[in-house]
Structures are given as structure tokens and as C-alpha cells.
Design brief:
single chain; Rossmann fold; alpha/beta; 9 helices; 357 residues; six-stranded mixed sheet
Length: 357
């Protein structure tokens, strides 16, 4: 299915303001230092004046520093992450033991929302792979570059290491955002999912918006049916080539979602595709200037501070797990749960048993 270039009136797209910062760290002294002449360094005698021509020929030219290229990485991490087995075990315990503070809600539901092929399904499979101890593809991933493989609402319980018990985290997959009229995903449908009206397995269609006549429609959803956090997914390798209207689309979505009291974070996927050093060693991700610059661009596109955004590398062609990749994935899951917790903290106790109309 080909993408159409015209904008949709119901889901406005306008690319975010580009970042003006360059990919290298500026020098602390941008202008050359002033030269100071002293009697000890420059002594001019009558003889030297007479032989000025000879002396000038013997003078050495001033040394000017030559820069052969831009700095591609930093000496230290711009976010403190421990890339150890102990840290992996600690994060696994934090994610697997998490439970919502509201006793009426057994699991936190997180909606993954982003453009087509931004890595939503791959992220779900990758997080589950960490707990399984081997690479698995639990959420089916497509190969089309223009259309969304996921067509319906699917909720995936992240299971613990034994695979027997569910953790307190549920990742919800949904059709990807597109820039044409046939994507099947509208602002109305997205908000209906967040409010808890959409039944599990509902297949989205552009000419059949979710409504009371929808099969399985939840008329009075409880708090456990709702989405408790939204994680926007953006592809680092496509930040500069996204449709020009995605910026206004994300802004519109964030405004409506915020009105529902739902916190939002963002995952910057495919960071290994924009940084060769990170592709070789994921632990270099927070030393990469290209990743940091792309994260700034993602922040401008989404209209959010970079403190809400974390980089991610999903498992794709790998057959075996990698410690550093696991730590990065688990850090993202833990980051999401922090904002899930804020939802329940913000939700007043008197509203815990209310219904969402």
C-alpha cells in the first residue's frame, strides 16, 4: 500500500522544528587567544633591527591547530548506566515484581504508539526475549515498508523468567500511524483505546470508527481496562525523513492524551542504525553524539523534553541475547513503569472505582 502525500484533516501532520546544534562539542574558547608580547620573549636590539630581513627569514610560523574531523563520541556517558550482569538482574527484578499501587488494577497497561515500522512489535518481542533467556518473536513483525503489519489491538502480558506467571506489565500493540487516508487509525480510535472502550482483538478500519455498535464495545470501562501510560515509538534512522505533518500529529495526540491524565514517554528505536560504534557495542550508546543529537530531534518532533526519551535497540536478526542490549531494553521498561506509577499516584483514591464514559 503506498503512502499518500496529502494531509489528513483529522490527524494533522507537520514535521517538528529541526535542531540547530551541530554534532560536535564546541571549543571552550571559540576565538584564538590574544598574543602577549613580553621583553623576555621578544628582545629587539639595534643589530637585529639592521638585520631584520635575515631574522624574519629565520622566524618560525605560528602553529595553528588543524581539525581533521568532527568528534563522534564523548569520553564519558551523558547518562549513567551500569552495563553489568548485576544491573541486568536488578532491572529484571524491578520489572517482574512491579505491581500497580491500586489494588483494583492487577496489571499496568501501556500503549505503544508510533509510525509504521517504528519497532513497536519488535520491542514487545525483545523485552519478552530478555525474560525468556533467548530471542523469541512473540509479537509478529512484518516486513512491509509502507503498511502496518499490526491491524488490531493486541495486549501482551510480559511473563517472568519461568514463563509461568505474568508480571505487572502489559504492552499493547496497535496499528501504526500513517500519512494517508487508508491507515485505519484515527484520533478517535486511539482515544477510544486509551479510555478502555476498544475490545481485545478489535480490527481497525478507516470507514468503521469505534462506536457503541462495535462488537464487544466496552460501554463503561473500569480503571483496569484503561491505558495507564503511552509510549511513543520513533525510528532514529527516519527522524529526518518522516512525513512533514507528523510533528503536528504528535502534538495533537499529546494534548488529548494529557487531558485524560495519562503520562507519556518515548522510545528512540534503531539507534544502532545511526551510530556504527553503538552497532558494534550497545554500551557506547550514551557516548554517541549522533544518538544524542537524534534524541534532540526526536524531542522536537514529539514536543517533549529529552528526559522522557530513552534509546532502544531491539533484537532483529540476532539468535542470542546480548548483555548490553538486555540492559538497554530493561532500562526502557523500567522507565515506562516509573510514569505508569505516576498515573496511579495522580489518580485520586475517590476515583479508583469510577467508570470512564
Amino acid at each position: 500500500m503506498e503512502n499518500k502525500s496529502e494531509d489528513k484533516p483529522s490527524v494533522g501532520f507537520s514535521f517538528g522544528r529541526p535542531i540547530s546544534s551541530s554534532s560536535f562539542v564546541p571549543l571552550s574558547n571559540p576565538s584564538p587567544p590574544a598574543l602577549t608580547l613580553t621583553s623576555s620573549s621578544f628582545t629587539i636590539s639595534s643589530q637585529s633591527q639592521n638585520d631584520s630581513t635575515k631574522e624574519k627569514k629565520k622566524e618560525k610560523p605560528l602553529g595553528i591547530p588543524v581539525f581533521t574531523g568532527f568528534q563522534s563520541k564523548l569520553e564519558s556517558q551523558w547518562r549513567d548506566v551500569q552495563w553489568t550482569e548485576e544491573q541486568k538482574k536488578s532491572l529484571m527484578k524491578a520489572v517482574s515484581s512491579y505491581r500497580p499501587s491500586c489494588k483494583d488494577v492487577p496489571q499496568a497497561r501501556v500503549l505503544l504508539l508510533g509510525p509504521v515500522r517504528s519497532g513497536k512489535s519488535s520491542f514487545i518481542s525483545s523485552v519478552q526475549s530478555v525474560f525468556n533467556g533467548r530471542v523469541t518473536n512473540r509479537a509478529m513483525v512484518g516486513s512491509s515498508f509502507n503498511t502496518s503489519f499490526t491491524k488490531k489491538l493486541q495486549s501482551f502480558n510480559i511473563r517472568d523468567q519461568k514463563g509461568e506467571d505474568n508480571t505487572g506489565l502489559v504492552l499493547c500493540d496497535i496499528m501504526g500511524l500513517g500519512d494517508g487516508e487508508t491507515t485505519g487509525l484515527t484520533l478517535h480510535d486511539i482515544l477510544s483505546v486509551i479510555k478502555g472502550h476498544v475490545p481485545e482483538g478489535h480490527k481497525f478500519s478507516p470507514d468503521q470508527p469505534v462506536g457503541t455498535e462495535t462488537a464487544g464495545y466496552v460501554k463503561t470501562p473500569s480503571l483496569r481496562d484503561r491505558i495507564h501510560c503511552v509510549a511513543f515509538m520513533v525510528d532514529a534512522s527516519k527522524i529526518s525523513s518522516y512525513h512533514k505533518g507528523f510533528g503536528s500529529t504528535f502534538k495533537q495526540l499529546r494534548e488529548y492524551i494529557s487531558e485524560l491524565g495519562v503520562h507519556q514517554v518515548a522510545l528512540l528505536t534503531h539507534v544502532d542504525q545511526i551510530c556504527p560504534e553503538t552497532a558494534k557495542d550497545v554500551s557506547k550508546v550514551y557516548k554517541s553524539l549522533s544518538v544524542r543529537e537524534t534524541m534532540n530531534k526526536a524531542g522536537a518532533l514529539l514536543g517533549m523534553s529529552t528526559s522522557y526519551i530513552v534509546p532502544v535497540k531491539n533484537y532483529a536478526s540476532e539468535l542470542d541475547l546480548d548483555l548490553n542490549t538486555d540492559v538497554l531494553l530493561l532500562s526502557a521498561a523500567d522507565h515506562i513503569l516509573q510514569y505508569v506509577d505516576m498515573f496511579f499516584q495522580d489518580y485520586a483514591p475517590r476515583h479508583m472505582g469510577s467508570k470512564i464514559m
